[in-house]
Amino acid sequence: MLINNDRGQSTDLVDLVKALERSVTPMGLRFQDIYHSYADTSALRGITLEAKDGEILCLLGRSGCGKSTLLNLAAGILPVQAGSIALGGTPLASQQHNPPPEKRSVGLVFQDSALFPHLTVAQNIGFGLRDRPSRQAVVNDLLEQIGLSGLGERFPHTLSGGQQQRVAVARALAPAPQVLLMDEPFASIDISLRRQLREETRRLVKARDCATILVTHDPEEALEIADRIAVMEEGRITQCGTGRELHAEPASLFVGLMAGSGAVLSATRMNGIAKTRFGRFEAQDLSFFTPPRNDEPVDILIRPHCAALQNDPSGLRITDVRHTGRSQIVTLDDMDSDSLLLELDPEPVWFPGDRVLIRTNGKPWPAFTC
Ligand SMILES: Nc1ncnc2c1ncn2[C@@H]1O[C@H](COP(=O)(O)OP(=O)(O)OP(=O)(O)O)[C@@H](O)[C@H]1O
């Protein structure tokens, strides 16, 4: 049914109701209090997380932290043991209700493309569309979008690894799923092609309205492709936010290092002073995500371009200096020949043999209670 808006334009009532529903109902994919164990291994320990419609959310963490387990629960590959999953505001899975993968509006992409070897590229892409009248048009459109028009009649083994992975993404997106789940989709792709494939995948996914969850252990990949990143450690989400948020206010040293590089200084805190092997720093030089308890050991993270050196004849000795154009990488030795690498602004120029003290560059350094 068509209705007219105040500018005289026609709008379909069903579309309007859907748009209104979207504005008031939590959409996307939502995990609520998920726990999961394998025999004596506790893989997930209370995950609550939401990937919104149109968003790319990365699960980032070391091997074994539970990323794939969470993805497999959403896909229906694993049954939910505790907690619940909702899709588009309606229950998707719980302990009582576990529909199989084919009954979920979910597209899957794995590390190896897992294309059907006996089907052509076009048949692979169209597999989830069955007898839909629009099948051919959708397949042709996707072939064009992934840059493989003209290769539809080829078989998967005649394609390069990168082309196969493009086809896998197209196959997952063809039925217009509400959610796209990708488990290390670029891990087996040549490193030189990976960035290009990431960009293409982001463009493809962003042209649709599905929620996307992508698993990776590569921080650079997560920062480049994701709208938000959920950092996982030992079955829990340590922090979830944009790359910028994780970089600016990391909840832990692990998150801080996942969201960017930096030098780490171990310190002991004494009455507002942090003592390290490379100098003493005032409390005002440090910023804690959570207030520290007194006299506990802390780790200080010094990001590139966030430290300055100051000449001091009794200070630390510079043993090496490299110039990259954008920065100056300086190696400092403490009295026991322990060394620290700092990435500094290119000016002022430092030389091996200079004696210096380290200072903040105006902004406090993130610090974490150990
Ligand atoms: N089928 C299984 N049986 C027993 N333990 C398992 C099984 N699958 C996963 N685990 C364990 O559960 C934990 C989480 O595994 P999971 O595969 O989810 O982690 P991950 O972060 O995806 O790791 P990776 O990046 O290596 O794939 C690990 O300790 C793993 O050894």
Topology summary:
Layout: E1 2-4, E2 10-12, H1 13-24, E3 29-38, E4 41-51, E5 56-60, H2 67-75, E6 82-87, E7 90-94, E8 106-109, H3 121-126, H4 135-145, H5 161-173, E9 179-183, H6 191-206, E10 211-216, H7 219-225, E11 228-233, E12 236-241, H8 243-248, H9 253-258, E13 263-270, E14 273-276, E15 279-282, E16 286-288, E17 297-302, E18 307-323, E19 328-333, E20 339-344, E21 355-360, E22 365-369
Parallel strand pairs: 5-10, 5-11, 8-9, 9-10, 16-22
Antiparallel strand pairs: 1-2, 3-4, 3-6, 6-7, 11-12, 13-14, 13-17, 14-15, 17-22, 18-19, 18-21, 19-20
Helix pairs in contact: 5-6
Adenosine-5'-triphosphate binds near residues 38 and 61.
The amount of beta strand, in percent, is 35-45%
* Unreliable runs: 22-26
Q: Quickly count the domains.
A: 2
CATH architecture of the largest domain: 3-Layer(aba) Sandwich
CATH class value of the largest domain: Alpha Beta
Radius of gyration: 26 Å
Q: Which bin fits the share of residues in helices?
A: 10-25%
Order of the strands making up the biggest sheet: 8-9-10-5-11-12
Topology-level CATH name of the largest domain: Rossmann fold
Ligands and ions found: adenosine-5'-triphosphate
**Whole-number average pLDDT?**
90
How does the helix and strand content classify structurally? alpha+beta
From the N-terminal CA to the C-terminal CA, the straight-line distance is 62 Å
